[in-house]
Amino acid sequence: MNTFIFEAQSTSWFKTDLPTYHCRFDKSLYKDELFAQLGIYFPESLINAVAKRRAEFLAGRYCAAEALRQLNIHNFIIKTGANRNPLWPETVKGSISHCDNYAIAIASDKSDLIGVGIDIESQITEETFEKIQSQVLSVSEIELISNIDLKKTISFAVAFSLKESFFKASYPTIQKYFDFSAVTITDIDSVGNTVSFKVNETLHESFKKGMLLQGEFHLLPEEKVVTLVKI
Ligand SMILES: CC(C)(COP(=O)(O)OP(=O)(O)OC[C@H]1O[C@@H](n2cnc3c(N)ncnc32)[C@H](O)[C@@H]1OP(=O)(O)O)[C@@H](O)C(=O)NCCC(=O)NCCS
User: 82 C-alpha vs ligand 1 centroid, how far in Å?
Assistant: First the structure.
């Protein structure tokens, strides 16, 4: 077993039964030969990338390959689309995230699923929080996260990550970037670990204004959070 990747396992952090796989990775042990050893395609886009970027891409694709394996899909090369979006097999919806030394991926072949998004974020400092909160959250969301039974910087990370997960889940359908104000977080349940949110503007036929959705979150060690949005 290679030690670049460690603590690799199926994820049981969420209520979903969709194949989800995470690992941790040690960037200091990264070398290019690991791509071949782990059976992951080294894309042209990484030729000019620094080792840190190569390492996180490899760890993310490794988790994605494991999630696909659970759907009985082997040796599929997940290429990258025009806006960095991973290109999954035609019958699959999936998502990848990496943050520091964590990577995670989810995949589904359920035909009734519009999309799935997953995201890991580190908690930010109080100082950064004060600076950036209004760029990511509305006045009502700032008030909401101040009243949740979680440290403010953690509930901010949950809200921010949830929006990133929603973006990843919906991007393959919407096919364009949209702003953080496109959805509003309406509740964070710190007991049930769910996040409720609302679509504020019609982004697509499948994502109409007023649509109510729910995601999940899980708190990781090292002050990180991970969120999942399944639509
Ligand atoms: C794309 C984005 C969501 C990535 O999130 P991040 O926290 O920077 O990084 P993560 O490690 O969690 O995710 C990176 C992975 O997301 C996936 N990803 C990147 N762009 C994507 C897209 N357009 N659609 C779906 N997935 C995408 C990729 O798999 C990428 O990893 P890889 O490049 O190694 O394959 C973020 O950088 C971004 O551009 N956000 C702006 C759009 C947004 O969130 N709007 C708010 C909506 S409410």
Answer: 12
